[in-house]
Structures are given as C-alpha cells and as structure tokens.
Amino acid sequence: MGKEIALPMVGMIMAECAQVGLMIMGKAAMSHGMSNFIFVFYSNALASLILLPSSFLYHKSERPPLTFPILCWFFLLGLLGYLAQIFGYAGIYSSSPTLATAMLNLIPGLTFILAVAFRMEKLHLRSSSSQAKSLGTIVSIAGAFIATLYKGPSLLMEPSHSSSLRQLLSQQSNWVIGGLLLAADCVFASAWIIIQASVLKKFPAELIIVFYYCFFVTLQSGIVCLVMERDLSAWSFKPYVRLVAVLYSAVFGSAFQLGVSTWCLRRTGPVFVSMFKPLGIVVSVFLGVAFLGDTFYLGSLVGAIVIITGFYSVMWGKAKEGMVDVDTQGMRLESSSQKVALLSNNNGEA
Known about the structure:
The chain is mainly α.
C-alpha cells in the first residue's frame, strides 16, 4: 500500500472518529445542562477565532474579491448550517449518537433529490446511474424510517427492568422525535451542500468560506440565544465537561475534521471519502456504550444496514456517472483527433 492511499486512509479514519467524538461531546454537554442553542453559539464563535487568521493566511496569494452578493450567500450558508446544527444536536440529545451517525448517510440521497428538484442534475430513468441513485435514495429513506420508528430489543447495555411503562413509552416517544429531528438535520445539511457547491464556483476559497460560515452562525445563534436563554447560569462552563465539549467542537469538529476531509477529498476523490462513512456507526456504538451508557437497539442495527445499502447505491451511481462522463470526453477527443487527421490527409492530397 503506497502513500497515495495509506495517508488518506489514516486521515479519513481520524476524521470519522473526530465527527463521532463531536456527537458524543455534544450530548455530554447537553446532558450536563447546556442547551443546544448555547453549545452551537460557543462552538462556532471559537471556531471563527481559530479560522480567522489561518484562512486568510492560507489564501493570501489567491483571494477572490469579496462582494455584497457573496456575503449574502455566506449568510444563507450560515442560516442553513445553523438550522442543521440546532436540529442535529436536539436529535442527538433525544436519541443517541449511533442513530445520528446512521442518519447522516441519508445526505447523499437527499442531496440528489434537491439537485434534481432545482435542476442542477438531470434524471435519466433509463440510465443505470440514475436508477442506482433513485433506488438508493428510496432505500436510504426506508432505512431511516426503520431506525426511527422501530426500536426493537436491546443488543448492548440492557436497560433497567425497573423502568415503568410510562417511562418506556416516554423513551420511545423521545426516540421517534429524535429521529425526526435528525431527518430535518439531514435535509438542511443537504441544502447546505447544494448552496455550498454554488458558492464555491463564485468564490473558490474553501477556508474563507468556512470562516464566514462559522461567523454568520455565531451571529445568528447569538441573537437566538439572547431571546431563548435569559438565565445567566445557562451560559456557565460549569461543570467543566461543557468547556471540554465546546473546545473539542471548535478545534476537532470544525478546523481539524474539515481540513483533513478536504485534503483527502482533493487527493482521492468523493467516492473514496464516502467509503469511510459507515465506519462512524461502529465508532459511535463503541463510544456511546462505553462512555455515555447508551443502549444499542436492534432497530438501529437494521436501519443502519438498510441506510448504508442505499448510501452505497447512490455513491455507485455517482461513480458510474463520473466514468461515463470521462468516457464521453475521451470519445469526443478521439473523434476530433480523427477529424484533424482526415483534414490533414485531404490537404496533403490536394
């Protein structure tokens, strides 16, 4: 195994572990009394301070002009990202990081639906790539319904049998609500990806985009916090697990994870990066059971398997589509070279 594959493989494993750790730390902070509104505000504020010098230094020589329309796009990115984070952390608190990690695999299929809806991508039902993406999207959504609505018996960390029927029904209700909140998180995240792709064409400076994204999320979440969280004790970092969670979210959840994922994406492409997404489910099960005392249910296992099946179907369709585009370009180049050769022969005969 050469360095071309070994380094990105190590990088993606670290990035997936960092993302799962972010979910674990977020739930730990909220379990100790910090609201998701304040957690999002603190995390993005600190991430903005970290990204401010590094992003502008990194793009020092190739910084595109910053115009008012571009700032409006950044604001929209921040709004979508803020809504995704609020719904995501609320869903994690009501359910578990394992369910959240499984639901994240819905994003490629939902992105495909939004891209077709906004005519950014064409749907050819006769082509195998479009069929794979369409079928994979349907399968992923079905898996999300299974993981959300069917809890099933526990596989790890058997829950206490002393729980009353009312408590069990309450837990089941919270699980369904958590799944619905995580589904909303995936919808907003998919819309964020669509808008980000458009912004990157207008402003090709990734780290500066991430800085302004975190900056606008900070402003938006700060305004919401002033309205929703008027108790000054809610802003406290005590117990100190709140502070640790915020530091982890800012450093590893934003700067480290995004930087490593972007580097791996440029080195290997989107298909290689997407192959490591299911690894997050395994890591989240282990960390959730070991550190949070979460229970791993059969419904989560079955739903995750179905979602991953649909996820790989969508990614296979994307890879197939990329191969077809490359082949088409090759045929065009070959036909154009043949035309040039024929023209040169005709000129020679003349």
